[in-house]
Structures are given as C-alpha cells and as structure tokens.
Amino acid sequence: MKPHNLLAAVAIPLLFCGVVVISHATESTVASLQPGADVLNLSSPRMIKAMSFGYDSLMADIYWTRVVQYYGDKRHAQGQGIHGASEHFPLLMPLLDITTSLDPHLLVAYKVGAIFLAEPAPRGAERPDLAVKLLRQAIGNNPDDWRLWNDLGMVYYEDLRDYKAASDAYVQGSKNPKADDWMKVMAAKIAQDGQSTEISRFLWNEVYNSSKDENIRRNALEHLKQLEQRPARR
Fold first, then answer.
1. Cis peptide before 231 (omega within 30 of 0)
2. CATH code of the domain made up of 43-229
3. pLDDT one-digit tens code per residue, 167-223
C-alpha cells in the first residue's frame, strides 16, 4: 500500500472515532435541563481542534448544530414548564466559543449566536455583553465583512441602548469600501436622535431583507411585529 493511502486508511477511521467521542461528550449538554446538569465535558477549543485531525470545518459544523439544538431544546423546555429550564443558557457561549475557534469564518455562528445571546430572557441568554464580545471576535477574524459592524451596531442600539457605541460601530463599518451608503446615514442619525422607532424599523427591515438564514429572518420579523404595536418616536 502506498504511504499516502496508508495514511488515509488510518486517519479517516481515527477522524470518525474522534467525531463519535466529541459528539458523545457534547450530548450531555443538550440531553438534560435539570439544575446543575448543564456540563460541557470537553470545553477546551484547543483540545477539540487537536482531536479534529485537521477537519476543523467539519467539527465546527457539528458544534454549530449542537448550539442550535441546545438553544432549541432550552426554548422547548421553557414552553413545557420544565423545572430549571430558564437558567439563561449557561452553555451557549462556551459552545459558540468552540464553534468559532474551530472555524473562525463560520459567519452564521457569529450572527445567529449573537442573537441567541442578546435576546432577553426567556427567549435568550440576556447577555448582550457576550454578544458584543462574540461579534468583535467575528470582525477581527473577518475584517472584510462590513455587515458584521451592522450586527454589532444593532446589539449596542437595541439591547444595550448605548447610542454612542452604536453610532461608532456604523461609522467603522461605513469605512469599508464595499459598505452600503446607509451605514453612514445610520451612524449620523443614531448620533443625532438616539432611540427612534423609525431607526429600529429600518434596521430590522435591513436585517430581514439581507439575510438568508431563517433564524435571523424569523427574529427580525418578530421585532418588526413588536415595532408595529408601538407609536412612532422620532
């Protein structure tokens, strides 16, 4: 057998063994919602990366699936009134950290993960500070994607009510030569007016129309429906 064929014959089974081990280890993070049961057996991104045998993107996809499953199971348990189900998603950030460490360019993990983190309880983790941290990591790893500045600006604007930071985020994003002109407009309008239903409606419409991810679109639509119930503020 040729050396490269021998290597493949050994590496591929090891890879799938690693996947099985890691999948089993993470299964406990979504299997139980009893108090104290949310434990991540393998929490080191570096260790998991080493166990991926170079298939980092594959493992990132597996972990991203875990993130969505974990979030969905928690939401379902809350709806069923299961005791201990409303503890603000303690494993959400660790799972997202592993996912994005394995694949720093998996944009959906940053964008949707930030939504899961920033949403108020009981819908989300009510941790906009962690959403900011995640999105700043996203920008550092994907500096050419100007829309990440929009995501960051949204968290500052909608969840933290920090209008200066929101305006600054839109200014920074607008410096990208590929950025749409409305980024500059939003920076100026937020700096001038602060909180405004008109601004919120525009931003959520932009999120809804520009995204192909159903989680993002669904979240944007929920916010738009809520805005329709408020009187316009300028």
1. no
2. 1.25.40.10
3. 999 999 999 999 999 999 899 889 887 878 888 888 888 888 988 888 889 988 998
